[in-house]
Specification:
By secondary structure, this protein is an alpha/beta fold. It folds into two domains: 85 residues, P-loop containing nucleotide triphosphate hydrolases (Rossmann fold, 3-Layer(aba) Sandwich); 140 residues, Transcription-repair-coupling factor, D7 domain (Aspartate Aminotransferase, domain 1). The relative contact order is 0.07.
Length: 314
Amino acid sequence: LIPEARIAIAHGQLSERGLEQVMADFYHQRFNLLLSTTIIESGIDIPTANTIIIHRADKFGLAQLHQLRGRVGRSHHRAYAYLITPEPAQMTPDAVKRLDALAALEELGVGFTLATHDLEIRGAGELLGDGQSGQMVEVGYTLYMDLLDRAVKALKSGKQPDLAGPLERQTSEVDLGLPALIPADFVDDVHTRLILYKRLANCADQTAIDRMKVELIDRFGLLPEATQTLIETHRLRLRARAVGIRKIECAAGGGRFIFAEHAAIDPVKLVKLIQTEPSKYRLTADTLKITQPLDNLAARSGMVIQLLNALSAA
Protein backbone atom coordinates (compact mmCIF):
# COMPACT_ATOMS: atom_id res chain seq x y z
CA LEU A 1 0.00 0.00 0.00
CA ILE A 2 2.82 2.40 0.88
CA PRO A 3 5.95 1.12 -0.94
CA GLU A 4 8.05 4.11 0.06
CA ALA A 5 7.35 3.65 3.80
CA ARG A 6 10.26 2.79 6.09
CA ILE A 7 8.78 0.43 8.67
CA ALA A 8 10.00 -0.43 12.18
CA ILE A 9 8.51 -3.09 14.45
CA ALA A 10 8.17 -2.87 18.24
CA HIS A 11 6.82 -5.53 20.61
CA GLY A 12 7.41 -6.95 24.05
CA GLN A 13 9.51 -9.90 22.85
CA LEU A 14 12.36 -7.65 21.72
CA SER A 15 15.36 -7.29 23.98
CA GLU A 16 15.54 -4.15 26.06
CA ARG A 17 18.42 -2.79 23.99
CA GLY A 18 16.72 -3.71 20.71
CA LEU A 19 13.45 -2.04 21.70
CA GLU A 20 15.30 1.06 22.83
CA GLN A 21 17.11 1.25 19.48
CA VAL A 22 13.86 0.89 17.50
CA MET A 23 12.19 3.70 19.45
CA ALA A 24 15.24 5.95 19.16
CA ASP A 25 15.33 5.42 15.39
CA PHE A 26 11.62 6.19 15.12
CA TYR A 27 12.02 9.29 17.27
CA HIS A 28 14.77 10.57 14.97
CA GLN A 29 12.60 9.75 11.90
CA ARG A 30 14.91 7.08 10.50
CA PHE A 31 11.63 5.18 10.12
CA ASN A 32 8.31 6.82 9.33
CA LEU A 33 5.93 3.98 10.22
CA LEU A 34 5.95 2.01 13.48
CA LEU A 35 4.11 -1.31 13.62
CA SER A 36 3.61 -2.05 17.29
CA THR A 37 1.67 -3.90 19.94
CA THR A 38 0.12 -2.10 22.92
CA ILE A 39 3.62 -1.73 24.36
CA ILE A 40 3.45 1.89 23.20
CA GLU A 41 0.39 2.52 25.41
CA SER A 42 2.35 4.55 27.94
CA GLY A 43 5.72 6.18 28.40
CA ILE A 44 6.31 6.98 24.74
CA ASP A 45 6.34 10.61 23.61
CA ILE A 46 7.00 11.13 19.89
CA PRO A 47 6.23 14.80 19.04
CA THR A 48 6.29 14.17 15.28
CA ALA A 49 3.83 11.25 15.36
CA ASN A 50 0.54 12.51 13.95
CA THR A 51 -1.48 9.42 13.00
CA ILE A 52 -2.32 6.15 14.75
CA ILE A 53 -4.33 3.27 13.32
CA ILE A 54 -5.69 0.84 15.93
CA HIS A 55 -6.68 -2.57 14.53
CA ARG A 56 -9.72 -4.28 16.14
CA ALA A 57 -10.32 -1.37 18.48
CA ASP A 58 -13.42 -3.19 19.80
CA LYS A 59 -11.11 -5.60 21.65
CA PHE A 60 -9.51 -2.85 23.75
CA GLY A 61 -10.71 -1.36 27.02
CA LEU A 62 -11.80 2.26 27.20
CA ALA A 63 -8.74 3.29 29.22
CA GLN A 64 -6.44 1.51 26.75
CA LEU A 65 -8.01 3.27 23.78
CA HIS A 66 -7.72 6.62 25.52
CA GLN A 67 -4.03 6.02 26.23
CA LEU A 68 -3.29 4.79 22.71
CA ARG A 69 -5.13 7.72 21.16
CA GLY A 70 -2.96 10.02 23.26
CA ARG A 71 0.25 8.70 21.70
CA VAL A 72 -0.20 11.09 18.76
CA GLY A 73 -0.67 14.83 18.72
CA ARG A 74 1.99 15.44 21.38
CA SER A 75 3.18 18.60 19.67
CA HIS A 76 1.71 21.32 17.46
CA HIS A 77 0.95 18.86 14.65
CA ARG A 78 -2.72 18.03 14.06
CA ALA A 79 -3.24 14.36 14.89
CA TYR A 80 -5.63 11.64 13.77
CA ALA A 81 -6.66 8.36 15.40
CA TYR A 82 -8.34 5.75 13.20
CA LEU A 83 -10.11 2.89 14.98
CA ILE A 84 -10.59 -0.18 12.78
CA THR A 85 -13.56 -2.33 13.85
CA PRO A 86 -15.89 -4.93 12.33
CA GLU A 87 -19.56 -4.17 11.65
CA PRO A 88 -21.48 -3.07 14.80
CA ALA A 89 -23.58 -6.25 14.65
CA GLN A 90 -20.41 -8.31 15.07
CA MET A 91 -19.25 -6.41 18.17
CA THR A 92 -20.40 -6.90 21.76
CA PRO A 93 -22.80 -4.29 23.23
CA ASP A 94 -20.11 -3.17 25.69
CA ALA A 95 -17.62 -2.66 22.86
CA VAL A 96 -20.10 -0.43 21.03
CA LYS A 97 -20.64 1.60 24.21
CA ARG A 98 -16.88 2.01 24.70
CA LEU A 99 -16.36 3.24 21.16
CA ASP A 100 -19.33 5.62 21.35
CA ALA A 101 -18.00 7.08 24.59
CA LEU A 102 -14.54 7.57 23.09
CA ALA A 103 -15.89 9.20 19.93
CA ALA A 104 -18.11 11.58 21.92
CA LEU A 105 -15.26 12.95 24.04
CA GLU A 106 -12.55 14.64 22.04
CA GLU A 107 -11.56 17.70 24.08
CA LEU A 108 -8.59 17.82 26.45
CA GLY A 109 -8.92 16.66 30.05
CA VAL A 110 -11.59 14.01 29.50
CA GLY A 111 -9.75 11.24 31.36
CA PHE A 112 -12.00 11.36 34.43
CA THR A 113 -15.16 11.46 32.32
CA LEU A 114 -13.98 8.43 30.35
CA ALA A 115 -13.26 6.64 33.63
CA THR A 116 -16.83 7.24 34.79
CA HIS A 117 -18.14 5.92 31.46
CA ASP A 118 -15.95 2.84 31.95
CA LEU A 119 -17.41 2.42 35.44
CA GLU A 120 -20.95 2.60 34.08
CA ILE A 121 -20.19 0.09 31.31
CA ARG A 122 -18.25 -2.49 33.35
CA GLY A 123 -20.01 -1.94 36.67
CA ALA A 124 -18.51 -1.17 40.06
CA GLY A 125 -17.66 -4.76 40.93
CA GLU A 126 -19.12 -6.74 43.81
CA LEU A 127 -18.63 -4.33 46.69
CA LEU A 128 -22.36 -4.38 47.39
CA GLY A 129 -23.39 -7.22 45.08
CA ASP A 130 -24.56 -10.77 45.73
CA GLY A 131 -21.03 -12.06 45.25
CA GLN A 132 -19.70 -10.12 48.22
CA SER A 133 -19.01 -12.16 51.34
CA GLY A 134 -19.43 -10.90 54.90
CA GLN A 135 -22.05 -8.54 56.28
CA MET A 136 -21.74 -5.67 53.78
CA VAL A 137 -25.50 -5.27 53.38
CA GLU A 138 -26.02 -4.98 57.14
CA VAL A 139 -23.05 -2.65 57.62
CA GLY A 140 -24.09 -0.34 54.81
CA TYR A 141 -21.97 1.43 52.21
CA THR A 142 -21.60 4.71 54.15
CA LEU A 143 -20.35 2.97 57.28
CA TYR A 144 -18.01 0.81 55.20
CA MET A 145 -16.50 3.91 53.58
CA ASP A 146 -16.07 5.55 57.01
CA LEU A 147 -14.21 2.49 58.28
CA LEU A 148 -12.07 2.37 55.15
CA ASP A 149 -11.26 6.09 55.37
CA ARG A 150 -10.27 5.76 59.02
CA ALA A 151 -8.02 2.78 58.24
CA VAL A 152 -6.29 4.61 55.36
CA LYS A 153 -5.65 7.70 57.50
CA ALA A 154 -4.18 5.55 60.29
CA LEU A 155 -1.87 3.70 57.91
CA LYS A 156 -0.70 6.95 56.30
CA SER A 157 0.27 8.26 59.73
CA GLY A 158 2.22 5.07 60.48
CA LYS A 159 -0.32 3.62 62.92
CA GLN A 160 -2.29 0.41 62.94
CA PRO A 161 -6.01 1.08 62.35
CA ASP A 162 -8.15 0.45 65.43
CA LEU A 163 -11.28 -0.93 63.82
CA ALA A 164 -12.56 -2.28 67.13
CA GLY A 165 -12.87 1.20 68.62
CA PRO A 166 -15.98 3.37 68.33
CA LEU A 167 -16.50 5.51 65.27
CA GLU A 168 -15.69 9.18 65.67
CA ARG A 169 -19.16 10.07 64.49
CA GLN A 170 -22.41 8.18 64.20
CA THR A 171 -23.35 7.19 60.66
CA SER A 172 -26.89 6.57 59.48
CA GLU A 173 -28.43 4.82 56.49
CA VAL A 174 -31.85 5.85 55.14
CA ASP A 175 -33.67 3.75 52.55
CA LEU A 176 -37.12 5.08 51.67
CA GLY A 177 -37.75 2.19 49.30
CA LEU A 178 -38.09 4.53 46.33
CA PRO A 179 -35.71 5.47 43.49
CA ALA A 180 -33.33 8.12 44.85
CA LEU A 181 -31.01 9.42 42.15
CA ILE A 182 -30.22 12.19 39.67
CA PRO A 183 -31.56 10.83 36.36
CA ALA A 184 -29.53 11.14 33.17
CA ASP A 185 -32.40 12.96 31.44
CA PHE A 186 -32.28 15.61 34.20
CA VAL A 187 -28.48 16.07 34.30
CA ASP A 188 -27.02 14.46 31.19
CA ASP A 189 -23.31 14.86 32.00
CA VAL A 190 -21.93 11.94 34.03
CA HIS A 191 -19.13 14.00 35.58
CA THR A 192 -21.58 16.68 36.75
CA ARG A 193 -23.86 14.05 38.29
CA LEU A 194 -20.96 12.54 40.24
CA ILE A 195 -19.98 15.96 41.58
CA LEU A 196 -23.58 16.66 42.64
CA TYR A 197 -23.82 13.28 44.41
CA LYS A 198 -20.61 14.02 46.31
CA ARG A 199 -21.72 17.52 47.28
CA LEU A 200 -25.06 16.24 48.56
CA ALA A 201 -23.33 13.53 50.60
CA ASN A 202 -21.05 16.18 52.13
CA CYS A 203 -23.87 18.49 53.22
CA ALA A 204 -23.40 18.88 56.98
CA ASP A 205 -26.74 20.52 57.86
CA GLN A 206 -30.23 21.25 56.58
CA THR A 207 -29.23 24.72 55.37
CA ALA A 208 -26.59 23.24 53.06
CA ILE A 209 -29.17 20.82 51.65
CA ASP A 210 -31.60 23.72 51.07
CA ARG A 211 -28.90 25.58 49.14
CA MET A 212 -28.19 22.50 47.03
CA LYS A 213 -31.89 22.10 46.22
CA VAL A 214 -32.20 25.75 45.14
CA GLU A 215 -29.07 25.40 43.00
CA LEU A 216 -30.37 22.25 41.29
CA ILE A 217 -33.68 23.92 40.42
CA ASP A 218 -31.90 27.05 39.22
CA ARG A 219 -29.46 25.13 36.99
CA PHE A 220 -31.56 22.25 35.70
CA GLY A 221 -35.26 23.04 36.31
CA LEU A 222 -37.99 21.38 38.37
CA LEU A 223 -36.74 18.35 40.28
CA PRO A 224 -37.92 14.91 39.14
CA GLU A 225 -39.43 12.68 41.81
CA ALA A 226 -36.30 10.53 42.10
CA THR A 227 -34.15 13.59 42.83
CA GLN A 228 -36.68 14.87 45.38
CA THR A 229 -36.40 11.48 47.08
CA LEU A 230 -32.60 11.71 47.03
CA ILE A 231 -32.64 15.12 48.71
CA GLU A 232 -35.21 14.00 51.28
CA THR A 233 -33.08 10.93 52.02
CA HIS A 234 -30.11 13.16 52.88
CA ARG A 235 -32.31 15.37 55.07
CA LEU A 236 -33.56 12.39 57.04
CA ARG A 237 -30.06 10.93 57.28
CA LEU A 238 -28.82 14.04 59.08
CA ARG A 239 -31.76 13.97 61.49
CA ALA A 240 -31.39 10.25 62.11
CA ARG A 241 -27.69 10.64 62.88
CA ALA A 242 -28.43 13.38 65.41
CA VAL A 243 -30.90 11.14 67.24
CA GLY A 244 -28.76 8.01 67.02
CA ILE A 245 -30.70 5.92 64.52
CA ARG A 246 -28.31 3.61 62.68
CA LYS A 247 -30.65 2.62 59.88
CA ILE A 248 -34.13 3.55 58.62
CA GLU A 249 -35.98 1.45 56.07
CA CYS A 250 -39.40 2.10 54.53
CA ALA A 251 -41.69 0.12 52.25
CA ALA A 252 -45.34 0.21 51.17
CA GLY A 253 -46.49 -1.66 54.26
CA GLY A 254 -44.36 0.06 56.91
CA GLY A 255 -40.76 0.34 57.96
CA ARG A 256 -38.20 -0.14 60.70
CA PHE A 257 -35.78 1.91 62.79
CA ILE A 258 -32.52 0.28 63.91
CA PHE A 259 -31.04 2.07 66.92
CA ALA A 260 -27.35 2.68 67.54
CA GLU A 261 -25.85 1.50 70.83
CA HIS A 262 -25.97 4.94 72.43
CA ALA A 263 -29.03 6.40 70.72
CA ALA A 264 -30.20 9.78 72.04
CA ILE A 265 -33.82 8.73 72.46
CA ASP A 266 -36.12 8.92 75.46
CA PRO A 267 -36.90 5.32 76.53
CA VAL A 268 -40.03 6.48 78.35
CA LYS A 269 -41.35 8.02 75.13
CA LEU A 270 -40.52 4.84 73.22
CA VAL A 271 -42.39 2.60 75.68
CA LYS A 272 -45.37 4.96 75.72
CA LEU A 273 -45.47 4.99 71.93
CA ILE A 274 -45.58 1.19 71.77
CA GLN A 275 -48.20 0.92 74.52
CA THR A 276 -50.42 3.50 72.85
CA GLU A 277 -50.50 1.72 69.48
CA PRO A 278 -49.29 -1.89 69.93
CA SER A 279 -50.73 -2.97 66.57
CA LYS A 280 -48.64 -0.33 64.80
CA TYR A 281 -45.33 -0.47 66.69
CA ARG A 282 -43.30 -3.48 67.81
CA LEU A 283 -39.86 -3.46 69.46
CA THR A 284 -37.44 -6.36 69.00
CA ALA A 285 -33.91 -5.99 70.41
CA ASP A 286 -32.56 -2.80 68.83
CA THR A 287 -35.22 -2.51 66.11
CA LEU A 288 -38.55 -0.70 66.11
CA LYS A 289 -40.90 -2.12 63.48
CA ILE A 290 -43.72 0.01 62.10
CA THR A 291 -46.81 -1.38 60.36
CA GLN A 292 -48.85 1.18 58.42
CA PRO A 293 -49.57 2.03 54.77
CA LEU A 294 -46.83 4.18 53.24
CA ASP A 295 -47.73 4.60 49.60
CA ASN A 296 -45.55 7.52 48.54
CA LEU A 297 -42.62 9.76 49.41
CA ALA A 298 -44.71 12.21 51.44
CA ALA A 299 -46.16 9.42 53.60
CA ARG A 300 -42.79 7.76 54.23
CA SER A 301 -40.94 11.00 54.92
CA GLY A 302 -43.76 12.21 57.17
CA MET A 303 -43.73 9.00 59.19
CA VAL A 304 -39.96 9.16 59.68
CA ILE A 305 -40.04 12.82 60.79
CA GLN A 306 -42.96 12.18 63.14
CA LEU A 307 -41.16 9.28 64.81
CA LEU A 308 -37.86 11.15 65.08
CA ASN A 309 -39.65 14.02 66.80
CA ALA A 310 -41.57 11.65 69.07
CA LEU A 311 -38.49 9.69 70.16
CA SER A 312 -36.04 12.56 70.58
CA ALA A 313 -34.73 12.92 74.12
CA ALA A 314 -34.57 16.71 73.74
